[in-house]
């Protein structure tokens, strides 16, 4: 009898324990389902927020692109000056910046916008040639026509028409400008002083010397730097276009020169304004 009572007690205890475990399991299961539901809800909210953020970034990027486009269009906007010249806002701004470095005495002589543009282009073009002596190199610009005058001290030895290698850097810059636009023509003029050449020299006279020198420069531009032969003109002017008195050594030195005349297109001309 006691044994039956004991077994019954044990059975009741097991049944009670089983009921408690099942209840806790159900509670945990419910909590898990609630957590899963909350997780799904949070993920959905997070995805919605991410979509909004992506949309905001897309709108910001579009506005930035629009702003940059407006700035670019503003820079490229061309104005007609009182002189009938067309210049973009950017070119005008670049010109003002360049003119800060130009000789102020020269700048004071500029009466028009065209004069100022010429000074700005001449300044940047000459600077691109390197540290050549001021007396050996002169750059003059007159409405897209570039005139570069080079002393024989830089280009040739006395009585010779062989180009001095130290002038190659400068000639390479001239070639770069010329190669940028196939329609550009480059006239190379050789000039001498009025002194008579040594008798029985292999060079006949100053006509011969001036032409040989211009042809030598043309060959360097064509053969070494790839300028098209159809763009180049060699001209010998002998001693008949002096810029100084041939009666003095100083004057004769100024008259011995090579003049290179370039006709760039307007875009290349204006591009020279922004070269700092």
Model description:
The chain is α+β, with helices and mostly antiparallel strands and 276 residues long. Helices cover 56% and strands 13% of the residues. It is built from nine helices and seven strands, in the order αββαααββααβαβαβα. It has a five-stranded mixed sheet with strand order 3-4-7-5-6. α2 (89-99) crosses α4 and α6 (168-179) crosses α7. Residues 73-84 have low confidence and may be disordered.
Which sheet architecture does the biggest sheet show?
A: 5 strands, mixed
Total count of strands: 7
Span from first to last CA? 115 Å
Percentage of helical residues? Answer: 55-70%
**What is the tally of helical segments?**
9
Estimated radius of gyration? 42 Å
Q: What low-confidence regions span 5 or more consecutive residues with pLDDT below 50?
A: 73-84
Structural class: alpha+beta
Mean pLDDT: 77
């Amino acid at each position: 009898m006691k044994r039956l009572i004991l077994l019954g007690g044990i059975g009741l205890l097991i049944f009670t324990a089983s009921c408690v475990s099942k209840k806790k399991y159900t509670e945990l299961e419910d909590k898990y389902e609630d957590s899963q539901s909350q997780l799904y809800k949070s993920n959905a909210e997070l995805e919605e927020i991410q979509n909004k953020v992506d949309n905001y970034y897309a709108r910001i990027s579009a506005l930035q692109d629009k702003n940059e486009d407006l700035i670019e269009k503003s820079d490229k906007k061309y104005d007609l000056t009182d002189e009938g010249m067309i210049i973009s806002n950017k070119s005008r701004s670049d010109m003002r910046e360049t003119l800060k470095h130009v000789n102020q005495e020269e700048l004071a002589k500029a009466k028009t916008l065209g004069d100022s543009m010429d000074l700005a282009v001449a300044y940047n073009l000459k600077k691109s040639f390197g540290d050549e002596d001021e007396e050996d190199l002169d750059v003059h610009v007159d409405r897209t026509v570039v005139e570069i005058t080079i002393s024989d001290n830089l280009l040739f030895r006395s009585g010779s028409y062989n180009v001095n290698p130290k002038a190659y850097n400068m000639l390479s810059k001239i070639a770069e400008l010329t190669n940028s636009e196939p329609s550009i023509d480059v006239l190379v003029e050789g000039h001498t002083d009025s002194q008579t050449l040594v008798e029985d020299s292999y060079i006949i006279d100053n006509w011969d010397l001036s032409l040989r020198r211009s042809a030598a420069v043309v060959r360097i531009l064509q053969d070494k730097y790839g300028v098209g032969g159809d763009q180049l003109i060699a001209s010998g002017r002998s001693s008949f276009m002096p810029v100084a008195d041939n009666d003095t050594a100083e004057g004769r030195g100024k008259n011995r020169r090579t003049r290179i005349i370039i006709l760039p297109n307007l875009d290349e001309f204006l591009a020279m304004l922004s070269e700092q």
